[in-house]
Amino acid sequence: MPELDLSLPSVDLTRAVCDIPSVSDDETTLADAIFAAVSALPHLDVVRDGDTIVARTQLGRAQRVVIAGHIDTVPINDNLPTRPVVEDGAQYLWGRGTVDMKAGVAVQLKLAAELVAPRVDITWMWYDHEEVAAELNGLTRLAANRPDLFAGDFAILGEPSNGQVEGGCNGNLRAIVRTRGVRAHSARAWIGDNAIHRAAPILARLADHTPEEVEVEGLVYREGLNAVRVSGGVAGNVIPDLCEVEVNYRFAPSRSIDEAVAVVERFFDGYEVEVVDLAGGARPGLDAPLAREFVAAVGAEPRPKYGWTDVARFSALGVPAVNYGPGDPSLAHHDEERVPVAQIDAVERGLRAWLSAP
Amino acid sequence: MPELDLSLPSVDLTRAVCDIPSVSDDETTLADAIFAAVSALPHLDVVRDGDTIVARTQLGRAQRVVIAGHIDTVPINDNLPTRPVVEDGAQYLWGRGTVDMKAGVAVQLKLAAELVAPRVDITWMWYDHEEVAAELNGLTRLAANRPDLFAGDFAILGEPSNGQVEGGCNGNLRAIVRTRGVRAHSARAWIGDNAIHRAAPILARLADHTPEEVEVEGLVYREGLNAVRVSGGVAGNVIPDLCEVEVNYRFAPSRSIDEAVAVVERFFDGYEVEVVDLAGGARPGLDAPLAREFVAAVGAEPRPKYGWTDVARFSALGVPAVNYGPGDPSLAHHDEERVPVAQIDAVERGLRAWLSAP
């Protein structure tokens, strides 16, 4: 089993964490390594639930902060192992997971080991299956098995935010849009009805669409509606009777989930639409006292978060939550995913300063 | 191993042959049964090459006719086992393979067993992998291993032709039309470039296309250009960087294969096109003396064949070839594939009469 040395500098620890591949549904090796490393720390109370690991200080502090990060990544595309790269004179760590979000996880692991007496009690959470359907998310399972572990006054997700504080998040909907036809031999196509040809207007509507920008509590959320998968076909000589386009709608946190469903149904009017994944967004939540204090301590300008993150889950539980982590979210899932080393260090310094302050 | 009783009436033998599933690449069970049945016939010289079986009379006749049928089918879609159905007072056998082309194969097997002294020598061929790429076709392999077996003065393919004689066939081209983009997290789609959206005009061109009708030697061939598969997508939250549309072009036998490639490249101008399967058509070939004699003997009106069939292969070898088999080709590959019992009997009578005539 690979071992993690939490005394390494954050950038080296990031590299070690990234070089243990952990594509969604294949996180066990990394989870084992994290569990072993934090179980060795006497100041933490460690609980494991599947491939999710929770480590808590129990100092009897007046307030508790949850600091969480997912340990899975999207599929590798020839971008592991990691390597150091230099761009415009700045040092980066390149490779799958460096941005989304193993640099954040590495900083958390390092601070979990070193902050034996923080100013607030801390619940560290490292969890699985964030990059796939919401019902598979490790926090969904943990919330069912151990809802008590989510107790807290404030939560920080280490999702990439360029070392800035990003408030709230867009909601996330996935749906299958279907066309149906009639199979026939492709030599006599006029007998059948081609379901793939029937999907032409679906792709055309998507290609022509301009997403909205929606202001919520002073932050502007940019929406998105995209095909993420398309499939259809039976054999090379058969007119296909089914075509499925999977679409992903990212919607502003001012929209309810019902409204998001209505938007998609209206957009694909005339087609069969099946919603397969749905998670509401989160309003910025930057008016909470601990949130204001945290933003001031790390010296950041709050921005909107475009991607759905688990801040929405904490927000729904009444725990104000923000995103704060190294890495440019524009490069998450990108083949050229890479994190500036300076941001890893800055986030480590920011969190350490705030959590250590008297 | 299932056994085939070649003394059964043709319709019952058709049923037995259909109820041994033999989707392309899974023909061995049926090939074993055919091999066992014809190997028991002392008047035939039997050769097996993979799942292709060739059985020849060696009577020293002045002329030799090749009579061939493929034993594979397209995928089953809840349409096996076969069942008898009645429609408008007529009896049908319903199920995968009944039309394309196991009724034809059953008639051939029965006549192979019973015609011990035909007027011409006969080379019976039952072969695998017709419903997939041309390079997998059992006859491609046989032509490489045993080209001598293709010698003949005339060839009859038992492909469905409603019991009529269908001359020649359209050519067949398959190509992949690709769009490329740039992956990104779907929460920030504007960073990436959606390859599926880029495929919208490909599907629109296909949906708007009206195929040509081309007259060749008095017969009118109807062309077709269709998407038969579409695929694209990486994960539910990733902007896809690749979309592939597989298209199938059926082209009139007056077009060369080079011309067919040019038509497709022109049609998808601006896109990456890769031809993955290409087989030329066959001109009707009804001016050959044996062909004229055969048409007169079975009392049929020649028609054009739309689908590509292996007549093109014989045609290319200089052996005039026609399609003659039971079943409506419009129902080939159809979920409701069904063959009129009367056509099975008529084709058996037609072939038997011509082959037995003094």
TrEMBL record, chains A, B:
Top-level EC class: hydrolase
Sequence ranges assigned to domain Peptidase M20 dimerisation in this UniProt record: 171-268
Record-listed E.C. numbers: 3.5.1.18
Stored Pfam families: M20_dimer, Peptidase_M20
Any one Gene Ontology molecular-function term assigned to this protein's record: succinyl-diaminopimelate desuccinylase activity
Alphabetical UniProt keywords: Hydrolase, Metal-binding
Stored PANTHER family: ACETYLORNITHINE DEACETYLASE, N-ACETYL-L-CITRULLINE DEACETYLASE
Protein name, entry field: Succinyl-diaminopimelate desuccinylase
